[in-house]
């Protein structure tokens, strides 16, 4: 019987010892950043709990906006900070609260309770003093009611980057649209243009008549071809010189139109040339060589008598060089490359704009 009683006593002692060790491993400490502050100011309340790592902790069920005691309100609750101690055998958990008071007084905070597994542990109680602001009651007009929320004035500096970014987006979109239409319609981006001095009408006619003169075999073998070339050269000259459609008019119509422009002497020579040419072309008239030569000389004389001297200050007229298939393919590749660069630029700008707006309003 004595042995049984002794064993019970030993078991109770061992259990009591384990309870004491477990309790010694849990500590709860509460502290304030300041024990004196003014009404409406914020103060920090820190709760630090040390416990074995294999036990579960429940912090006080505080919420943002609730009052710990009357007129003492929790403004913010930070995330708990956990530190491992003794090679991970213990944990130190620190929870910070931001509190404020809305009335001047001496406040008493009761012990803060935490639950570790099934046991309740408490911190020490705290106290702090809240002071009121000095009020000048003799100058009541120095106090004003609360102001409404004011909107910040517009500042170009805040929106400058966004404005230019959106402008760049519109320009890039217009560029892509233009490139798309050029590629679709087969139009080049650029044309190769060079300045070429245009020969005056009389010089062109004289060169053509000289060429006809050198090929005298036409006058012998084919008078019709000879006079066709000669009259075409004259018609081209007259059309350029007097600015009417001589190539589409009959010989008679040309003579009647020229009567209004020049004297009868030059027209008489021209009339004989056209008359002979019409007989050769339509009536199969045969002309001797000397007559052909005489008409050719008369044509040169008519051009020289009616020509307009070239203006030495005249600017060369532009000439567009014809685009080849190879050049076209090269330009299409260039356009496609530029479109790809524009698309990449648009993506980058959109991301930058969205990020900027998020930073401004979120």
Q: Which characteristics define this entry?
A:
alpha+beta, 9 helices, rod-shaped, 48% helix, Immunoglobulin-like, 362 residues, three-stranded mixed β-sheet, six-stranded antiparallel β-sheet
Give me the secondary-structure topology.
Layout (H helix, E strand, L loop, with lengths): L1 H23 L2 E6 L3 E3 L3 E11 L4 E2 L8 E3 L2 E6 L3 E5 L4 E12 L3 E5 L3 E4 L2 E4 L3 E6 L24 H30 L7 E4 L4 H14 L2 H5 L1 H20 L8 H9 L4 H19 L6 H18 L10 E4 L4 H37 L1
Parallel strand pairs: 2-12
Antiparallel strand pairs: 1-3, 3-8, 4-10, 5-6, 6-8, 7-8, 9-12, 10-11, 13-14
Helix pairs in contact: 2-9, 3-5, 3-8, 5-7, 5-8, 6-7, 7-8
Q: What would your notes on this structure say?
A:
Helix content is 48%, strand content 21%. It folds into three domains: 27-131, Sandwich (Immunoglobulin-like); 156-198 and 316-362; 202-306, no CATH class. The protein is α+β, with helices and mostly antiparallel strands. The chain has helices at 2-24, 156-185, 201-214, 217-221, 223-242, 251-259, 264-282, 289-306, 325-361, and strands at 27-32, 36-38, 42-52, 57-58, 67-69, 72-77, 81-85, 90-101, 105-109, 113-116, 119-122, 126-131, 193-196, 317-320. The strands form four sheets. Strands 1, 3, 5, 6, 7 and 8 form a six-stranded antiparallel beta sheet that branches. The protein has a three-stranded mixed beta sheet with strand order 2-12-9, with no helix packed on it. The two termini are 78 Å apart.
